[in-house]
Amino acid sequence: MMSDPGTPTLDQLRVFLTVVEVGSFAGAARKLHRATSVISYTIANLEMQLGVTLFDRKTTRKPQLTDAGRTVLAEARMVYSGINGLRAKVKGLLQGLEAEIHLVLDVMLPSARVVDALRAFRETFPTVSLHLHIEALGAVTQRVLNRGAALGVSGPLITNLDGLERIAVGSVDLVPVAAPSHPLASSANAPGATREHVQLVLTDRSTLTEGQEYAVMSARTWRLADLGSKHMLLKEGIGWGNMPQPMVESDIAERRLVLLDLPDCPGGTYDFTVIYRTDSPPGPAATWLIDRFKAQAAQNL
C-alpha cells in the first residue's frame, strides 16, 4: 500500500474538478476541449499518484465519487481556489491595485454608510484585503498621520494640520437624549439645567486634541471610551448626552430614549471629512472608497 502519495499537478486538479462539476468524462472533455480518452488518462494518472480511487466506474454508468474522492474533492477545491486567488492578486498588483488597505472610520459615521461602502468594496475589489479600524474624535486623524491607516473618515478637524488632504463627505445630526425616567426628560428645561446632571461624554484617546471639550455642558461628566457604552448607559438612565440621530432613531420611536428640550444644548451637526497623507496619495481601490463616501453624501445616505 502506498504511504507517500505523489504531488498532483494543477492541470490534473482542474480535470478532476471539471469531471465532478459536469458529472461525466465526456462532458469534461467537451468543456475543456480535449478528447475523452485524455480526460480518462489524466484521472487515472491522478489516482495512481495519490494511491486512491477517486471515482466508482463499475456500479454506475456515470462516474460517482468514492469516499476517498469526496475527501480529495474538498482539498482540491481549496488548492485550486487558492491558486486562482493568487493569480488574481498578482494581476491586480501588475495593474497598480493595492494589495491591502487600512481604513479608519469615525465612530459617529452611520452604520448604513459603513455597510454600503464596504459591501460594495468587497464586490468591486475581491482581491484587496481590508483592515478596518474604528476610532473617535482626534484618534482618526492620528492614525492616518502615524501611517496606521492610509485613508480615514474623520469628524470635524479642530486643528489645522499640514500634510493632510481633506475631502468633505457629508455629516450626521447629533441630538441630546436620555432615558424616559431621567429628570431632564420630563419637561422643557431652563437654561443651565444640564449642569446639575451627569453628562456622558466620549473620550478622545489621541494627543492631537487632548484637553479640548466637545459640547460638554455639565460640571459632572462620565468619560467613556466607546460610543456603544455611552448608548447602553443612556438607555439605562445613567446620564444624558448627545448621540448620532440614526443610531438612536429606533430607541426614540420605541421610547427607550427621548429627545431632550435643552435650550443651551440643542444638538448640532457633526461633519465628516475623508483624510489621507499628501505624501501617500490613494491608489485605485482607495480612490474608489473616497468616491463612494462622496456619493453617499450627495444622496444624503
Automatic annotation (TrEMBL):
<keyword id="KW-0804">Transcription</keyword>
<dbReference type="InterPro" id="IPR036390">
    <property type="entry name" value="WH_DNA-bd_sf"/>
</dbReference>
<dbReference type="Pfam" id="PF03466">
    <property type="entry name" value="LysR_substrate"/>
</dbReference>
<dbReference type="Pfam" id="PF00126">
    <property type="entry name" value="HTH_1"/>
</dbReference>
<dbReference type="InterPro" id="IPR036388">
    <property type="entry name" value="WH-like_DNA-bd_sf"/>
</dbReference>
<feature type="domain" description="HTH lysR-type">
    <location>
        <begin position="8"/>
        <end position="66"/>
    </location>
</feature>
<keyword id="KW-0805">Transcription regulation</keyword>
<comment type="similarity">
    <text>Belongs to the LysR transcriptional regulatory family.</text>
</comment>
<protein>
    <submittedName>
        <fullName>LysR family transcriptional regulator</fullName>
    </submittedName>
</protein>
<dbReference type="InterPro" id="IPR005119">
    <property type="entry name" value="LysR_subst-bd"/>
</dbReference>
<keyword id="KW-0238">DNA-binding</keyword>
<dbReference type="InterPro" id="IPR000847">
    <property type="entry name" value="LysR_HTH_N"/>
</dbReference>
